[in-house]
Design brief:
alpha+beta; 4-stranded antiparallel β-sheet; about 220 residues; 8 strands; elongated
């Protein structure tokens, strides 16, 4: 009887190992930033050739106001944070985390699905506040910097000689600091996706509303790119 139990247990372990081997493994993530424009050009979309990316954009086109799309940056990461560049040299911070790896739950109510990862994704302008309580102080700082900027721009009308270049440099520095003070979180989302799948994580309007960032995430299987 005991021998039968051992054989059955061994068979179960072999079956479990075979299932685990058959399941796709997570290798990393590909993040793509697209610029969507309501005034689409006649040249059509400039999208990466990957079928999954094109399918993901096609699936949401009817729900978005944009007529054309073009890729402005892409990054590969296994996990964690990376920086990406958007229009007008605006930098963005992207964070991708596998929730099951950062939150240990020995007795989950809903067990993890095979071949599925639960993602925590954030996209924010570089320098954005990490804590909600910082936002008010940053807005006050930005308002003060904007007053200084307005004063410098008025003085530019009477500046002469080398003072012109000096004031231009100060104006550029103030504009940079204002952008950092005004930086904000654009996307903060948690969702499930299959390994190998590409999803549109979200969108964020820029440029007065006639343009917008469209963010795509691909969960790349081991051996994929």
């Amino acid at each position: 009887m005991k021998a039968c139990q051992i054989i059955a247990a061994a068979a179960a372990l072999v079956a479990t190992a075979a299932v685990a081997h058959a399941q796709p493994k997570q290798n990393g993530f590909s993040v793509i930033l697209l610029l969507g424009e309501t005034q689409g050009g006649s040249g059509g979309d400039n999208l990466p050739p990957a079928p999954g990316v094109r399918k993901a954009v096609t699936d949401v086109k009817d729900f978005l106001p944009y007529r054309s799309y073009r890729m402005i940056d892409s990054q590969w990461l296994r996990m964690g944070t990376t920086r990406m560049k958007g229009p007008d040299d605006q930098e963005y911070e992207v964070e991708v985390q596998d929730v099951d790896q950062i939150i240990f739950n020995p007795n989950p109510v809903f067990p993890k699905k095979a071949g599925v990862v639960k993602i925590a994704f954030t996209l924010k302008e570089a320098g954005a506040a990490s804590q909600p309580g910082e936002e008010y102080a940053r807005s006050m700082q930005a308002a003060e910097l904007e007053k200084q900027l307005a004063g410098l721009r008025q003085q530019m009308g009477t500046a002469q000689g080398s003072m012109i270049e000096t004031m231009k440099a100060r104006i550029a520095n103030l504009e940079k600091n204002i952008r950092l003070a005004r930086a904000k979180k654009l996307i903060d989302s948690t969702f499930e996706m299959e390994i190998g799948e590409t999803v549109v994580v979200g969108t964020s309007r820029i440029g007065g509303g006639d343009k917008g960032l469209v963010v795509l995430l691909t969960s790349v299987a081991a051996g994929g790119k």
